[in-house]
Please model this.
Amino acid sequence: MKLAKKCSEKKVLRDPIHGYIHIQYEVIWDLLHTREVQRLRRIHQLGGNFHVYHTAEHSRFAHSLGVYEIVNRIVHEVEDVQRALNEKERIVAMCAGLLHDLGHGPFSHFYELIMHRSHEQVTIEIITDPSSQVHQVLDSYDKDLSGQIAAILSHTHPVNILNQIISSQLDADRMDYLLRDAYETGTSYGTFDLERILRTMRVCDDQMCVKESGIHSVEDYIMARYHMYWQVYLHPDAKAFELLIWMFYRRYAQIREVVDLPSAKLLDEPFDLDNFYMLDEYRLYSIVQDAAQCPDLYLSDLALRILDRRLFGWIEDPDEKELSEIHTELAERKLPADLYYHEEYSHSSMYLPYKEEDEKNAVYVLDPHGKIYRLSEKSEIVKALMKMETKTRRMVYFAKKRSRFERI
Ligand code: NI
Model:
């Protein structure tokens, strides 16, 4: 089987989270050197979060390698999994780990909004597109490989544990990003005991689960998610930065017919993979740099706010007096509300660190008698978390009072 061909020498890449990333199969090494995978070096893993945590500059490339390594360990070190899968299935899972985030555009959510497609869709398009380098590498090893990986990434692979290893409540993706994001932001709450989780992982009836003695490490992992959501992923300043990018695009869209900004033409094109490869965060920043010089007052102002990190301010559940002060200030400075003001409601239930909506997305615990239970039946902490009250808050973002560097 060509797919099982090993590298002449095992490759090892240093990594701050896993110590080393180990690459033994040639197909993985070849995938690593494709245009689509290398492009992930130019996309931040945490979008605009480096404006909140100044060291959070790590890329989706590093995260993808980390997910690959965790999958590599699960399929080789967890004995039940190794037994349940044949060699081809193990390699397919490792490829899926490496490729699972290919479809992220610049500042992921922003790109999804302007192109009207999710990064999951784009990932599958790339893997199945005959002209992509990733597809060509996969095809050269095994014609059926790209279809199998696409099935895992859309959660429809007939071997259920393959889907679960890549995407579930306790999957390689989340385990890597939590540890990596915690490390790169310097947030100690995000860490948990990966070794212990791997050591207690089992397979029971085509279902991934953890031994009862592993419950504490899983609880710790879920608490890590809880803290990382509130401290990092949902930080209002990160949202404020992404809003600036969005407002910049909105202004551009208002004046695209008249403004002379050739580099931004890429934003006008309908989605296709060639444009997708060109539009990374470096390119987006160069459009912003160009726009900073353009004669349109609002577009250049928003561009400078992005470059100089003059973020919007924000208030949670503002009262009438606060709101009217904001609107008066905007009106006095002639700053249009559609570009300098935004409000939204956020519901904490959307960000629960653990949900058990149906059997498919629960974490399962294997008791000493070989019976499996949902995590919430065995863990008091998780039970309490799931009963957490749902809070709704109204968030208002706005251009702050004029600073000495603002022209308008
Ligand atoms: Ni990911």
